[in-house]
Request: fold
Amino acid sequence: MELSLNTATVRKQWNLAQIIDGCARHGIRGISPWRDQVSAMGLSNAARAIKANNLVVTGLCRGGFFTAKDWRDDNRRAIEEAHELGARCLVLVVGGLPQGSKDLRGARERVREGIAGILPEAREAGVPLAIEPLHPMQAAERACVNTLEQALDICDALGDGIGVAVDVYHVWWDPKLEAQIRRAGKRLLAYHICDWLVPTRDLLNDRGMMGDGVIDLGLIRTWVEAAGYAGFQEVEIFSEHWWSRDADEVLDVCKARAA
Amino acid sequence: MELSLNTATVRKQWNLAQIIDGCARHGIRGISPWRDQVSAMGLSNAARAIKANNLVVTGLCRGGFFTAKDWRDDNRRAIEEAHELGARCLVLVVGGLPQGSKDLRGARERVREGIAGILPEAREAGVPLAIEPLHPMQAAERACVNTLEQALDICDALGDGIGVAVDVYHVWWDPKLEAQIRRAGKRLLAYHICDWLVPTRDLLNDRGMMGDGVIDLGLIRTWVEAAGYAGFQEVEIFSEHWWSRDADEVLDVCKARAA
Reply:
């Protein structure tokens, strides 16, 4: 499986131009940028540099946050940017509970409506939407879609042009993971890897490098491949530890550990 | 719904004798002790003091940890203690991955076998076993049963004498929670309350007091009652914050917030 670098992995060391150069220099053929980095570099500059280096944009992070006020315009822009970058999908982090709310069911309804609302534009732009179920510990703050089953239920209700991004960090614990990956089939639009550390010291920024935790990455990969996924595996590590290391070294370790 | 105090809530301020006195003084009619506290007080002393104060033992915490080496003897003792205390159930925290293992499926098989292994003794002692699904963020370290659906699947395979403990902290995020509580019906042996704080700063010891977080406790309670549960609601708060407060004040707040 070819390697892609989610740019969050070295976002504190390098800007997007440096990350594009780094991928090229290290022979990493895929990249998945975050929109704030794209914006800082300029959309057309980013698109040009990525193309000049023959990188595949395995995803754009992120659309979503349908429970925020400006969700409509923000997702419209995200779709345009994903189109301009030729991204294989726009990753949706769907948003959690609105400030002060305990209405989880309501938030989930708003998410479904929001995705249904932007889907026609995404189809027209040729940008597949990838719902990323996030770990239940992030249900309140970042995403109220928390299992692959829940994400696929939304996909099935909406038809074409939508699928899922499976990040092992969020789903590795799920007793239904194998069955739901099989169910996903061609809806599997992105596959993200990292590891779950024991102990985990922070709910957001203590992800592990592949091999340093307890996720059986080899096993999950066989499920993903058996489901027909032929895309990249994308390293996405939010980690104060890895953000404090030399970025070239981080990329070397990513390559070695993903092999 | 009557109130029970899980003794972990004030474990750093008081020993079990003080907690029993505290419950009586505050008019809290249920108690759910941890075995280390029972052991420190002495089993027969604890049983006598609980009985003298007319407290209902809504559960004994805990059996389980079936992935540990001494699980057989430890669970046998736990069943005996639960019987001696007249506990309404023995709460099972089933255990996570063995040290150095990534074999989550294997751990789950061992858990099923372990529960099946102790169930005959539990039935004979008249001690219902209550599987407590733990939050997915504790899958590696404390319990590889992580959803109510998964716990109920185990119960259904094993028959009588076994049910579930539903702790809102662990399951509030689950999109299938309402349906699975309905499914649980008479298998619902214990109901634990607290709250999920935003942000949550620690994976174990940053639980919130009811009302301080984002869990819709009123709604979940209607589901639990509709399922036919007529037991206590048990406050269980692992929190450095509440452990640093005066224990009498903590009990006052618990009573006010659980009303």
About this structure: Strands of chain B lie at 3-6, 30-32, 56-57, 60-64, 90-93, 129-131, 162-167, 188-193, 233-235. The longest helix of chain B spans residues 104-125. The first strand of chain B starts at residue 3 and ends at 6. Chain B is about 45% helix and 15% strand.
